[in-house]
Design goal:
Blueprint (H helix, E strand, L loop, with lengths): L1 H28 L15 H31 L1 H19 L9 H27 L3 H25 L28 E6 L4 E6 L9 H9 L3 H7 L8 H5 L2
Antiparallel strand pairs: 1-2
Helix pairs in contact: 1-4, 2-3, 2-4, 2-5, 3-4, 4-5
Length: 246
């Protein structure tokens, strides 16, 4: 029991504290958003259960045996060091896939270094249990750690409301259908999907899609441009068809 208490203290020092340091670096220094790593809103119970079972139970058991227990048993301390190095580098390799493609290289490198720092401290913590002859404790702590992360992700996912993408401005409650056809055109908004909220883009009343460079060049070279231009007039906020959905 004394080793368990000491091992619990090491967990705080080598896993919990580095985790908080990593969160600070990712959020304050690298300016990464929390919702980069959120589960999609369409996740069902079976997917949550699969994530909890795989991430919280199966992977900790497999990782502890494959990267620490077996290498230590077969190759001794050098095998444990190599196994930990592979385990540390394997995590940011798949986590990078969750970052948006427009994240600059400098931020990606910082993210990898931050992740390696965190997992290196975690590797020291779990390796200490194996070296002390308490590999079972290392497996149990790894399971508890991953299960806590999986459960928190499920709770966070359940609390996030992903809005349905809208094209036209929603009518305010109590506004009549004829109010949008008044002499003064209302301001128009296009909503684009943005995790986890919608960001409104306000368009001026005189906005005309056909005034874009593409359509201006098209009118110069195409004899049927007038017909196609008329087809796109419905996107103009000044037209009644557009305002009808306002």
């Amino acid at each position: 029991m004394s080793f368990l208490a000491w091992y619990s203290i090491l967990y705080v020092a080598l896993v919990a504290v580095p985790a908080m340091v990593r969160i600070f670096i990712d959020q304050k220094v690298l300016k990464l958003k929390d919702w980069y790593f959120l589960l999609p809103a369409s996740t069902k119970f079976d997917q949550h259960f699969d994530n909890l079972t795989l991430t919280g139970l199966l992977m900790p058991f497999v990782e502890e045996l494959a990267f620490r227990g077996v290498p230590l048993l077969l190759l001794g301390l050098p095998g444990l060091i190599v196994g930990n190095a592979v385990w540390v580098l394997a995590h940011p390799s798949w986590q990078l896939k969750y970052l948006p493609s427009d994240i600059p290289l400098r931020t990606r490198v910082g993210f990898v270094l931050s992740a390696c720092m965190y997992y290196a401290f975690s590797a020291i913590f779990f390796s200490y249990g194996w070296l002390a002859g308490y590999g079972l404790y290392a497996v149990l702590f790894h399971i508890l750690h991953n299960s806590g992360i999986a459960i928190s992700a499920i709770i966070s996912d359940a609390s996030v409301k992903f809005a349905r993408p809208e094209i036209f401005k929603e009518r305010k409650e109590g506004q009549s259908a004829h109010a949008s056809e008044s002499s003064t055109p209302p301001s128009s908004e296009i909503f684009v999907e943005k995790k986890p909220i919608r960001v409104p883009i306000t368009l001026d009343a005189d906005f005309d899609l056909t005034d874009l460079k593409f359509f201006r060049e098209f009118r110069k070279v195409s004899p049927v441009s007038a017909t196609i231009r008329a087809d796109f007039r419905w996107l103009n906020p000044e037209q009644r068809y557009f305002r009808r959905f306002g």
